[in-house]
């Protein structure tokens, strides 16, 4: 099963960049400075910010459907993030060492199946991320998978079928 993982489009967050703390607060966001090299995952670059790097913390609607599974939560976006290239049949650095909740949605946006997984743990009790992606996409009703960081619940990335005409 071929899959593709994309970072969120940087342009969608441009209105937040370069704003003052007061302006960000009015927009429901805030600027934070990473105090470690891990723990501040950027949804545009699909990499963790480095210690001392500025990020915008904001609410993002990751599953914009009119049904009951509509979902929004806080995410980080690095102010100087470069747009990630598509990760085709490989996992982005931001997944490393994190337990993920993988949620398989059908075309209308209804949740069909879900799995917990961790990168690099094939055969472990939770199973590996790639194994879980393949398992979810084996169900032909699943149109896409949303990866969320299991501990904090925030949206990590969208996983799509790749090279499949479904």
From TrEMBL:
Source superkingdom: Bacteria
Name this protein carries in UniProt: DUF1203 domain-containing protein
Organism: Novosphingobium soli
Pfam families named among the record's database cross-references: DUF1203
UniProt xrefs under InterPro entries: DUF1203 (IPR009593)
